[in-house]
């Protein structure tokens, strides 16, 4: 018997609509829209919570600093192994240029009395209470955050003068040739603002680095009866800028010192500054002689020398077109004051060089000597600002008496050389000036102080007798040839004296001991 089917069983199921049909291509496109790649999955997980957040939450403050407090690095010497994970993380997470580093490591070793002892040190910017970089910057390219105390560098304001590098006793700011500016650690302030730890804190496998809140507003000049707290044995004097970094853990022996203390490395020569200083001081000296003699040739020569020096100064700037903002640092920066002083002096060489060739006009005979005499006090003042620029860095070889002797000695040398064209007795004064100027250099060369064998002056003396000995010989030879040529013709002695002073200024820059945090073991040169 043929079975009878229910009518509904004969009905066909409805066909899917065209919009519901999914081809293989549709499925692939939908899958790509979800970005299920390893990078996408990592980004999704990271967006939920920063990497290692559970790990580093106890390594950063969970609240903003209160009044009278600021953020600071705290380094546990017991935990630091010198692995440089912090250095690598800082470099990569902050997108630094090749060979650029904002954090570094070094080594302290025991002294002669203590038993064998060694300690690795990690350091970055100390975000000082009285930062030298901020006080020295001529264009206000540094700011200290009033809320958290972080010292930040404003890249868009920097002119690349590198004066902050000289002002910082810890060698923190780093010059970038590629960008023409200086940059430094900013404690990853953008990460801290989001509750995330700085790169170095996240990367340290032993939790040796953390961010803490420390009290501020300590006295700038504490009473002499109360000793300053020890910042870190073997590190530069903390009283200069009052660093906030705290080194805790094992006690550091007072006899400990930097592992690279005996390494003799000449400092950067700063050739644009060498030519700027020598040529401007030579020009001022020659122009100053115009008050005692009328010589159009000398006036033109002095103007050329001075303006060549001013042109050389711009070559030292990474961003010279931004230098017009120098007035922003007049309150604290001697570099700003130097720019102002030389800018006020700059019209005088042009006036002195042009006046002899202008046709007679009323009061010309009165204006010429007035301009000549004005150059003397203004020139002395301008050179004084140059002296203070280097004295203010607190480097021993650049202290006020030595720097003033060098700079004013150069000016007087060219002053007496110019006078000797018409006054033969000035030759004797030039010889006396050159001998007096060489006195501190000879004293430094023979400097020996057994009671303090690692004094900064003795370090400079070792450089004189070691890596820079050939430069010393050339400097002495050119000075001798200058004196011989002087009694033939002052014009012949002029270029020789310039060469001699250029070598002297090279020694001024390269023989200085630059303070910095402890470095690693080097290859000490023979003393």
From TrEMBL:
Compartments where found: Cell envelope
Coiled coil: none
GO cellular component term, pick one: cell envelope
Main location: other
Alphabetic keyword roster: 4Fe-4S, Iron, Iron-sulfur, Membrane, Metal-binding, Repeat, Transmembrane, Transmembrane helix
Transmembrane segments: 271-292, 298-318, 339-359, 371-391, 403-423, 472-499
Keyword Metal-binding: yes
Domain of life: Bacteria
Keyword check for Ribosomal protein: no
Gene Ontology biological-process entries: anaerobic electron transport chain
SUPFAM superfamilies listed in its UniProt record: 4Fe-4S ferredoxins
Residues in 4Fe-4S ferredoxin-type domain copies: 71-101, 149-178
PROSITE patterns membership: 4FE4S_FER_1, 4FE4S_FER_2
InterPro entries in alphabetical order: 4Fe4S_Fe-S-bd, 4Fe4S_Fe_S_CS, DmsC, FDH_Electron_Transfer_Unit
One GO MF term attached to the UniProt entry: metal ion binding
Any one Pfam family match given in the protein's UniProt record, by short name: DmsC
Protein name from the UniProt record: Fe-S-cluster-containing dehydrogenase component/DMSO reductase anchor subunit
């Amino acid at each position: 018997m043929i079975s009878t089917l229910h009518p509904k069983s004969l009905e066909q199921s409805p066909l899917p609509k065209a919009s519901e049909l999914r081809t293989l291509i549709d499925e692939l496109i939908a899958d790509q829209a979800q970005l299920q790649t390893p990078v996408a999955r990592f980004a999704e997980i990271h967006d939920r919570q920063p990497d290692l957040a559970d790990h580093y939450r106890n390594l950063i403050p969970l609240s903003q600093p209160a009044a009278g407090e600021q953020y600071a690095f705290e380094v546990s010497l017991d935990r630091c192994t010198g692995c440089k994970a912090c250095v690598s993380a800082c470099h990569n997470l902050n997108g630094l240029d090749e060979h650029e580093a904002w954090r570094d490591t070094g080594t302290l070793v025991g002294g002669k009395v203590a038993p064998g002892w060694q300690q690795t040190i990690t350091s970055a910017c100390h975000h000082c209470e009285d930062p030298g970089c901020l006080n020295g910057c001529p264009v206000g390219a540094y700011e200290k955050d009033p809320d958290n105390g972080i010292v930040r560098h404003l890249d868009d304001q920097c002119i690349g003068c590198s004066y902050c590098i000289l002002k910082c006793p810890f060698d923190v700011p780093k010059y970038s040739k590629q960008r023409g500016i200086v940059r430094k650690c900013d404690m990853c302030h953008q990460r801290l603002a989001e509750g995330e730890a700085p790169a170095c804190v996240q990367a340290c496998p032993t939790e040796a680095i953390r961010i803490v809140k420390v009290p501020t507003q300590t006295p700038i000049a504490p009473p002499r009866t109360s000793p300053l707290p020890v910042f870190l044995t073997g590190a530069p004097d903390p009283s200069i800028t009052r660093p906030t970094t705290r080194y805790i853990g094992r006690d550091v022996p007072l006899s400990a010192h930097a592992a690279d203390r005996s390494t003799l490395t000449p400092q950067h020569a700063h050739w644009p500054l060498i030519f700027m200083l020598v040529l401007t001081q030579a020009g001022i000296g020659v122009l100053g002689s115009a008050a005692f003699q009328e010589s159009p040739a000398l006036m033109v020569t002095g103007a050329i020398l001075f303006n060549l020096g001013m042109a050389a100064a711009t070559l030292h700037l990474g961003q010279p077109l931004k230098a017009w903002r120098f007035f922003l640092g007049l309150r604290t920066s001697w570099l700003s004051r130097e720019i102002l002083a030389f800018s006020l002096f700059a019209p005088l060489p042009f006036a002195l060089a042009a006046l002899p060739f202008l046709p007679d006009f009323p009061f010309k005979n009165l204006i010429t000597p007035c301009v000549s005499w004005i150059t003397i006090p203004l020139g002395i003042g301008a050179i004084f600002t140059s002296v203070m620029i280097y004295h203010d860095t607190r480097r021993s070889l650049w202290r006020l008496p030595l720097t003033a002797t060098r700079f004013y000695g150069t000016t007087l040398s060219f002053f007496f050389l110019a006078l000797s064209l018409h006054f033969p007795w000035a030759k004797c004064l030039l010889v006396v000036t050159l001998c007096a100027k060489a006195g501190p250099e000879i004293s430094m060369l023979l400097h020996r102080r057994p009671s303090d064998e690692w004094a900064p002056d003795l370090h400079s003396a070792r450089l004189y007798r070691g890596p820079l000995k050939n430069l010393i010989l050339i400097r002495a030879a050119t000075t001798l040839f200058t004196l011989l040529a002087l009694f033939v013709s002052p014009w012949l002695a002029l270029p020789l004296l310039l060469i001699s002073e250029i070598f002297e200024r090279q020694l001024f820059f390269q023989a200085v001991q630059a303070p910095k945090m402890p470095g690693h073991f080097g290859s000490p040169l023979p003393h």
